[in-house]
Each structure stands twice: as structure tokens, then as C-alpha cells.
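Before a computer can learn anything about folding, someone has to put a protein's shape into writing. The outcome of that step, for a single protein, is printed below:
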Amino acid sequence: MSLLATTSIAKIADYADQTVTLSGWIHNKTEKGKLIFLMLRDGSGMIQCVVFKKNVSEACFSQAQQLTQESACRITGAVRADTRAPSGYELDVQEVEIISLTQDYPISPKEHGVEFLMEHRHLWVRSSKQHALLRIRAEVIAAAQEWLNAQGFIRFDTPILTATAAEGTTNLFGTDYFDLGRAYLAQTGQLYVESGMMSFGKVYCFGPTFRAEKSKTRRHLTEFWMIEPEVAFAEHADNLVLQEQFVSAIVQRVLERRSEDLRVLERDLEPLKRVVPPFPRLTYDEAIDLIREKHHEVEGCLPLAWGEDFGAAHETLIAQQFDRPVFIERFPSAIKAFYMQPDPDRPEVALCADLLASEGYGEIIGGSQRIHDPALLEARIREHGLSIEDYRWYLDLRRYGTVPHSGFGMGIERAVAWISGTRHIRETIPFPRQLYRLYP
């Protein structure tokens, strides 16, 4: 085959009225007598390739006839503008080269059940909607890191294997670690990233985290990715401003760069366009009062006593009252992690906040000002029944150059589910790990 210009579908507009070669896979094929329509995808986009029998050799037409769904091939042809085409262009085919023929591809255009699709997740990611979701995921990750980098943050990688629980829970995945006893898959990088904060001032970690709770809700994964910034000399109010700027920048970048993927997912863009600072702020006390007043508006939303944590129905009710994400701040200290700074004016509540996404998607960020006083932190560790020896290194951060500091963690999958308008979090990661899902 003669290769003139080799390009990708995403750059096809640069080759209008020229002859190019595209390499990819057949998304679908339609035959109409002397015409064969091949929908080719190459990972960067899709384009319709038209094979007209009178314009090609018999061998070329035969090759086109043999192609099946997900067969790999190279197609050479002339790029022609066509406003009716999804990409704005079509390819008038001149040559077809088969790389590999696929037989009996299991995922056909017909409807399949979720269990079947999850069993074939390694193939399902090729479909249009899954492809769009994972491109949005990639954009969210890039946007988050690039925005933080531009603000002067340093990426500070933290360990996945740890000797203790960061938040004092027993819901951990453990393994034997040589002769040193038990090690655990990290729930968060936060404690370790605080050491980076004391070195660089503004840092973040990004990586997989693990939760062993036996949860089956659509909002939970046992393995998920989290980005966690930490800032020295920052207090609670500073932390909230950083979060709303961060989230808004990510959403606006996705709107700008991934509009076609959002269209494929049939996402309503108007709620996303409203994701601009400032975000509303509601105290835990105000949220409890709101739930008592309006709990009947959401099924399963029961009134709460002070000191109880919110469930999904409560978060949905609260979020419905606002047209953009909303902060719930100053939760009772007793239901939050040991390292959260108590409010000096009201020690029974912590200087912390959860950020609830709009449209009922629930919490996407949890953050707080951290305790910087070594004596108070040691007392809190003891109150939680934790070993002082296990957290000796963490206490060192307060003994040597302590400063007020704050940070937060954003779950990538929850953010992607909200931005893309996808109801179930399992589709926002290439291979979800859930209570009953470890394959493929």
C-alpha cells in the first residue's frame, strides 16, 4: 500500500482535499450494493469512510467486504468536507489494508446487561459512551494537576503501602510485609503529603487509594484515585477558596476541551456552566435544620439528631437547594478524623468541610484545617485509641517548625461521574474494583 500522509482522525481537518492514510478499527459497517460505509475509529475520533465499487479495485472492494466490527485496518482515501458527517469530513476510500479480522465480537450494537458488559469491561471501553467517559476522566486528571502546578504546587508522591491507618479505621486491606509485620494499602496520602508541605509549602499527591468497607452503593469503589493538595500557612477559610477555584477550573476546562464527549453522553451543560466561585457555605447545624424542615422531599431522607453523619439522601436534599456545589462546614469533631483542627470558638466542631456536587452527586471533596499544636494532636490520637508510637513521625511534623496548614482530597471518579452526568461511579474508571467485582 502506498502511504502518502499518515494522520489521526482528530487532525483530519488539516488534510481537506488531500489523500491520507488512517489506521484504526471498524466501529460498524453498512453495505448498500455498490457502496460500503465503514465507520472507522482510531482513538482520537471517528470518521465515515465511503467505498464506491466503481472507484476502487476489485481487491480493495473485496477487502472492505471482509471487514467486521472491531477489525483492524489501514484505509487510504481523499478527505472530503461533509457537513452531515459527525467530524465534518468523510474519506473517499482508495485502498484498504486488513491488519486483522475479528470474528464474533461479543459486544454488538444490541442491548446488553450491565453484568455482561462488566465481564467484558476490557472490550466495553471501546464503545462510544465509555470512550467519552474515559477521555473526560483523562481531562479531569490533566486539568487538576496542571492547575495546581500553575499555582506553584509540587507533586509529592506518597506510599501506597503503609504501617498504619491514616484515619484510625479497621477497614483496611492488609498484607504480610517481610519480617516487619502487617502493611496496609493506603486510604489516603494525606499524612505523608503533610511532610512535603513542611518542605515545599504547597504540595499535592495523586494516586490510587483503597477502602475496605463492604459498600455496594453506586458512589463507592474499593480502589479509586484521589488528588490531595496541602498548603502551609493556610487556614480553614483559605482552604475553601482554594477548593472552589480548583473545581471551577477543572469543570470549565472540560467544557472547553471535551464538549464533543459531553455531547455523546447527552450531558446537560447548563448546570456545569454555573460552576463558578463563590460556592454557597452551609454549616452542619444549618444543614441539620434544613433536613428536618425538608426531609420529606427526598425518599429515604430521615431527620438526623445532632452528631449524626449525612447519608446519600441527605446530601441529595442539601444539594437540590443550590444551583452549584455547596460546602457543608464545621462538622462535629466526634465524627471526623483525629487530625482536624477544632474550632477555637466552639471545640465540639471541627474546622472542616465537605463539598457536595450539584444535581445529587454527593460529596466530591473532603478537607480541613489540620491540628498544628503537638500537645493537642497527641491528645486527639489518644482519644481515638491509636498508638502514639505509630504516629511518632507525624507528631514530629508539629515538633519541628509547626505552622497552621490545611488541605483536602478530591476523588477523581466522583468528580468525573458528576461532570459527565453518569449515575454509576463504576463507569468512570477503566477497571472498577467493587465488593463483588475483581475481574477483569
Remarks:
- The longest helix spans residues 128-150.
- The chain has two domains: 9-100, 121-427.
- The chain has 13 helices and 19 strands.
